[in-house]
Amino acid sequence: QVQVVESGGGLVQAGGSLRLSCAASGSITSIGVMAWYRQAPGKQRELVADITRIGTTNYADAVKGRFTISRDNAKNTVYLQMNSLKPEDTAVYYCDVRHLFKGDYWGQGTQVTVSS
Phi, psi at residue 87, to the nearest 5°? Predict the structure, then answer.
C-alpha cells in the first residue's frame, strides 16, 4: 500500500506563484512515474505534468513555460512549482503515484484558487 499526501494549495492572485508538494510513503520501493492532475468544477480530470524516476518530464500545453515539475527520489516527493498563475488554473490538484506493479495511488487533492 502507498499513502499519498499533498500540500501547498491556497488562494493567490493572478500572476502569482504556488508550490505544491506530494509525499509518498508505505510500499514505495517500486514507484515509477509521479504526476500531477487537476480537476476544475464541471470538467474532467486532466494531466498537468508528470516525471519519471530519471527526471524526464511531460507537460500539458496549457502549463508549459509556467509550471515546473520536479522530484526528490530520496524523499519520495514530487513538487509542482506554478508561476504566472491564471484564473483558469483554478482547480483541485491531485498527485498520482504510479506503482510499477500495483497501479495508481492518489492523494486527497489540494485546492488551488487563482483570483483575477
Answer: -55, -30
pLDDT of residue 47: 98
Q: Are 56 and 35 in contact (CB under 8 A)?
A: no
Q: What pLDDT shows up at residue 28?
A: 77
Pairing of strands 18-26, 2-7: antiparallel
Give the C-alpha distances (Å, rounded to integers) separating 116 from 5, 11, 24, 93, 112.
Answer: 28, 11, 33, 19, 13
Largest pairwise CA distance in the chain: 43
Q: Are 116 and 11 in contact (CB under 8 A)?
A: no
Q: How far is CA 28 from CA 23, 52, 61, 90, 101, in A?
A: 10, 14, 30, 30, 11
Amino acid identity of 101? F
Question: Phi and psi for 63 in degrees, rounded to 5?
Answer: -115, -5
